[in-house]
Design brief:
Distance between the termini: 18 Å
Helix content: 55-70%
Number of strands: 0
Structural class: mainly alpha
Number of domains: 2
Shape: elongated
Order of helices and strands: HHHHHHH
């Protein structure tokens, strides 16, 4: 992996770390807009006035958020109208980009080594499980360094 790509990965990982603690937070069933508006005691008309929308428009906005069809732009505008800031981010399920890359490299290495191992077994040249595991580990390490596009297929 070239230095530029390593630098980008490290920068993204640092940015994502601030979201890690929020990755387990689930959205309210009604959506954030309605939940916050209700918690603040703000009426549909009041939020509508702040967004230059009708009461029905706000109800549709809240329903679209609950359904997951609200645009980020609309969500940002609603947050502003509620005197809030929209925080938006993606967090790797593996905890970090490096861990994600490592998992994908191991999966691909397993596939590659398994194919080779199967054909060798058919030719009566089977390897020991220890040797296969070592080959998987070595192949995964080289894949992590190379970062071929095939990792994401």
């Amino acid at each position: 992996m070239e230095n530029k790509q390593r630098l980008l990965l490290d920068q993204m990982d640092r940015k994502m770390q601030s979201f890690t603690s929020t990755s387990n937070v689930s959205s309210p069933p009604t959506g954030w807009i309605k939940a916050i508006r209700t918690a603040l005691g703000m009426s549909l008309d009041q939020l509508g006035a702040r967004l230059d929308m009708t009461k029905q428009g706000i109800m549709k906005l809240e329903a679209r958020e609950a359904a997951g069809t609200l645009t980020i732009k609309n969500l940002r505008e609603a947050a502003r109208a509620l005197d809030m800031t929209l925080v938006y981010g993606l967090v790797p399920k593996d905890g970090s980009l490096d861990a994600l890359i490592e998992r994908k490299a191991k999966e691909l290495a397993q596939q590659i080594v398994s194919r080779t191992s199967t054909s060798m077994k058919l030719e009566d040249q089977a390897n020991s499980p220890e040797r296969i595991n070592k080959a998987i580990e070595e192949r995964a390490n080289s894949l992590k360094l190379e970062m071929p596009k095939i990792l994401w297929d």
